[in-house]
Specification:
Mean pLDDT of chain B: 95
Number of helices of chain A: 13
Largest sheet of chain B: 5 strands, parallel
Radius of gyration of chain B: 23 Å
Strand order of the largest sheet of chain A: 3-4-7-8-9-10-15-16
CATH superfamily of the largest domain in chain A: Aldolase class I
Radius of gyration of chain A: 25 Å
CATH topology of the largest domain in chain B: FAD/NAD(P)-binding domain
Distance between the termini of chain A: 58 Å
CATH architecture of the largest domain in chain A: Alpha-Beta Barrel
Number of strands of chain A: 20
Strand order of the largest sheet of chain B: 4-3-2-5-19
Helix content of chain A: 25-40%
Number of strands of chain B: 19
Oligomer: heterodimer
Low-confidence stretches of chain A: none
Structural class of chain A: alpha/beta
Chain lengths: 434, 446
């Protein structure tokens, strides 16, 4: 039986599944229910400065994107940080940590860009016995208009500065939560690293308008005829998050910086993918907001079963395993030549591969009057579109041409050796050096 | 005391009032909007889709389903009506399991096709419920066309002609338009007066004058019509019923299934329809199943369908056969009637088992009897009263191409014309195509 225990920057939890800072972690009632369900840890919903509580809109806070059968694929929100009094949150954090000592309790923070403000709140959090803090430099809506959240996260110098203040004013591990609303995620992670962060967590939500109400001619969610951009999350953002995690994991300047992976984690498999790309654990939000806390049981069982099948006994056995295989385009092997192959037994003759290839790609699939679809190797560039649009999993596969075989498309013999763009004769840079 | 299923003889009111309502409720209830979206999402939007090729009216099925999936059911309905103006009825009565759904790639792959028929109903119901008519009549051409028979073929032809701007006189022998849609389909397939509602909706295009109670050969002559109109379309259906050619056929309570079905469809109160305690239906088509199932639903104690050949040869689809079985109808195959027994009224039917031989079907010496106080004959209909001068092919009106008969200016389609398959949807296609040909012919004449 695989051991799912997790140690993230010294914060221990029985499994690597944490709840992200969000509505599900806004109060004791929810967090206790989460721990009862089996969640390994939580990042408490972001606390702000002491004073009059934050005010939220009183209309809809969420907008959604659906797949088939109203399966929720993407969610956006315009909710702000906690709107409950600081004192109440701190008291509850203390109680929950006392009652659930084996679970990770990290507290998300967002206060104005002044060292004193951070110093004040860090001291209050320390008193609760929490395991660590997460600096919310990510929220793209509302708070950013007040110079917090992503307004900080988008300026690497601010990220570094605030991180440094926090490290100087607490003994707790400091996790810096990054916004994806930037052009190069590495600049923010490097800044956090320079500021002394123990870890980064990413991604926060993405600036978004989920849809437009075509009767009201207004973005959704709609508040009295107006809408604003909100933070997008859920399964739809996972590919973006995976890339950003991988970019940081393979960046020489931040190599080894612990990462908490966030962004569309819905199943054990999503979690395993984030961890394979270097995340030490994952944080979940939209999935529990869709299905409730019980899904963690599937995540625990699925991850454990997969690890057993793979022969991994601890999480560190596979964490980061895929990072060396993330590379730049220029290093991809151009001598790796494949052709699509359609399994006639599995084919249900829908013809989607044909339409996709004929209309939008390389006219490399033939169709007979009997609806038999066959790949024309002399046209196939192995783009994979037919595989992607085929409704039958495993029906279309890619066969690698063996070295020595002739590629019918180019008429050239497949080389045995590796060859990439950096040495390709068509590369102007190569010619320049000749 | 009220009658029950056990009351001997042919009587009405065998069931409690609510049982009639439940038994004759919509066989396949409509999809809700969400169900339709989910069902539509299963469509793969196949390239050159097999379902389209299998549809006699060639509806662009993947397109209309995609329109449903994207929240545009009215656009979906227009896609359907473009090809099949009776798409509402066809959604209810088409044997989709033998047509579009049989060749759906998901049927082939998983044994569970996209529910094309139900989706078509969802789309067409949505548009029809919105009121109004989606097409406008073309600029009047000054041409007048007689359409004889207001069944599916005649209605489809008349509508397409009206779209082109021709003036149509639509004649029908029966008191109501609709043909078999109104008189010949099981009640649970087209509830709430849908057949008449559809006719009314279709006529909303304008330019079609309906004349009921006008029969060809009695009130109208083909020669007269040819003189009065620029073109004639014959869609007179099959008015005759094949005889059993079994001894005792004249006994009382031996009747044509089509008449029983028509009476049932026209009844305001189903508890007034008399049905036997033991009913035997002879035949193997949709009419046999419709008569048998409805007999059972009216409270008959036992209902038996007897068909002379094997199950595979029955023209009732497997789904229809399963429906009959699920309602408690027994299906006996490989037996043909020898004689009807009884003193005045039928009491039993004697059958002989049959045997397939190279020369055809043969009766064997082995016989059996089935008790019956009511017998329905459903062994096929035939063309009755075809006008003189029209060439026939077999026992139907000979046609070439889009319904051209041997007489200039006369087209034919639907069940009365040779070459079809007696399906509503095929009749619609023939009516539509004949209209296009009539239009092209008249316009070419200038």
């Amino acid at each position: 039986m695989a051991d799912l225990r997790n140690d993230f920057v010294g914060i221990k939890s029985p499994n690597p599944f944490w709840l992200a800072s969000a509505p599900p972690t806004d109060k004791e009632y929810n967090v206790v229910r989460a721990f009862e369900a089996g969640w390994g840890g939580v990042v408490w919903k972001t606390l702000g400065e002491d004073g009059p509580p934050v005010v939220n809109v009183n209309g809809p806070r969420y907008g959604a994107i659906y797949g088939a059968d109203r399966r929720l694929l993407g969610l956006n929100n315009i909710e702000l940080i906690t709107d409950r009094p600081l004192e109440v949150n701190l008291r509850e954090i203390k109680t929950v940590k006392r009652d659930w000592p084996d679970r990770a309790m990290v507290v998300s923070l967002m206060v104005p860009c002044e060292e004193e403000a951070w110093k004040r709140i860090l001291a209050r959090v320390e008193e609760t016995g929490a395991d660590g803090v997460e600096l919310n430099f990510g929220c793209p809506h509302g708070m950013s208009e007040r110079g917090m959240g992503s307004a900080v996260g988008q300026v690497p110098e601010y990220v570094e500065m605030v991180t440094r203040w926090c490290k100087a004013n607490t003994r707790m591990p400091v996790i810096v939560k990054l916004t994806p609303n930037i052009t190069d995620i590495r600049l923010a992670s490097r800044a956090a690293h320079k500021g002394g962060a123990d870890a980064v967590s990413l991604i926060n939500t993405i600036n978004s308008i989920t849809s437009v109400d075509l009767d009201l001619m207004c973005p959704e969610p709609t508040i009295d005829g107006k809408g604003t951009h909100g933070g997008y999350c859920g399964p739809a953002v996972k590919p973006i998050a995976l890339n950003m995690v991988a970019e940081i994991a393979r960046d020489p300047q931040t190599r080894g910086l612990p990462i908490s992976g966030i962004g569309g984690v819905t199943t054990w498999k999503d979690a395993a993918e984030f961890m394979a790309l270097g995340a030490g654990n994952v944080q979940v939000c939209t999935a529990v907001m869709t299905y409730g806390f019980r899904i963690v049981q599937e995540m625990i069982a699925g991850m454990s079963d997969w690890m057993d099948r793979k022969g991994f006994s601890t999480l560190s056995d596979f964490t980061g395993m895929a990072v060396p295989n993330v590379t730049d385009w220029q290093y991809l092997n151009l001598n790796y030549i494949t052709k699509a192959v359609i399994d006639q037994e599995a084919c249900i003759k829908c013809g989607r591969c044909y339409a996709a290839c004929e209309d939008t790609s390389h006219q490399a699939i033939g169709m007979t009057p009997e609806r038999r679809f066959v790949v024309k190797d002399e046209e196939c560039v192995a783009c994979n579109l037919c595989v992607d649009v085929c409704p039958v999993e495993g029906c279309i596969t890619m066969r690698r041409l063996a070295p020595g075989e002739v590629d019918p498309r180019t008429g050239k013999t497949v080389p045995a050796d590796y060859g990439n763009w950096t040495a390709h004769p068509n590369n102007p840079a190569v010619r320049a050096t000749e | 005391m009220a009658n029950t299923p056990l009351t001997p003889g042919v009587v009405s009111g065998r069931l409690a009032p609510e049982a009639y309502r439940d038994n004759f409720a919509d066989k396949t209830p409509p999809l809700t909007a969400h169900e339709a979206r989910v069902a539509a999402d299963r469509c793969y939007f196949c390239h050159d889709a097999p379902c389209v090729a299998a549809c006699p009216t060639a509806i662009d099925i993947p397109l209309f389903i995609r329109e449903i999936a994207t929240g545009a059911p009215r656009a979906a309905a227009r896609t359907i009506f473009e090809q099949n103006i009776l798409g509402g009825m066809c959604a209810r009565v088409c044997p989709t399991e033998q047509l579009c759904e049989e060749v759906c790639v998901r049927e082939v792959a998983e044994g569970k096709p996209v529910e094309i028929g139900r989706l078509q109903r969802y789309a067409t119901d949505t548009l029809m419920a919105a009121g109004g008519h989606p097409y406008t009549r073309g600029q009047p051409t000054g041409r007048r066309i007689a359409v004889v028979g207001a069944g599916p073929a005649g209605l489809a032809c008349a509508h397409r002609l009206a779209m082109k701007g021709h003036a149509v006189d639509l004649f029908d022998a029966k008191p109501k338009a609709g043909g078999l849609n109104e008189y010949g389909i099981a009640a649970y397939k087209t509830v709430d007066g849908f057949a008449q509602a559809e006719v009314d909706w279709l006529l909303g295009i304008g330019g079609i004058a309906v004349h009921n109670g006008r029969a060809l050969g009695r009130d109208l002559s083909l020669d007269g019509l040819r003189g009065d109109y620029d073109a004639v379309f014959l869609a007179i259906g099959l008015g005759g019923v094949n005889a059993l050619r079994a001894e005792g056929e004249e006994k009382s309570h031996v009747r044509d299934a089509v008449d029983f079905i028509a009476d049932l469809r026209q009844a305001d109160d189903l508890s007034t329809i008399a049905v036997g305690r033991n009913v035997v239906v002879i035949g193997g088509g949709m009419t046999a199943v419709d008569a048998a199932v409805q007999s059972k639903l009216l409270g008959a104690e036992t209902v038996t369908i007897v068909y002379r050949r094997g199950r595979d040869a029955m023209s009732a689809s497997e789904e229809e056969q399963n429906l009959a079985a699920s309602k408690g109808v027994r299906i006996v195959t490989g037996a043909a009637p020898l004689r009807i027994l009884g003193e005045g009224a039928v009491e039993a039917v004697e059958f002989a088992y049959t045997r397939e031989t190279g020369a055809g079907l043969e009766m064997t010496d082995e016989t059996f009897r089935i008790r019956a106080d009511q017998v329905f004959k459903a062994i096929g209909q035939s063309l009755e009263g075809a006008p003189e001068g029209l060439a026939l092919s077999g026992r139907k009106i000979a046609v070439t191409g889009p319904g051209r008969t041997s007489l200039p200016g006369v087209w034919a389609g639907g069940d009365c014309a040779a070459g079809g398959d007696d399906l509503t949807v095929t009749a619609v296609a023939e009516g539509r195509d004949a209209a296009e040909d009539i239009h092209a012919t008249l316009m070419a004449e200038g």
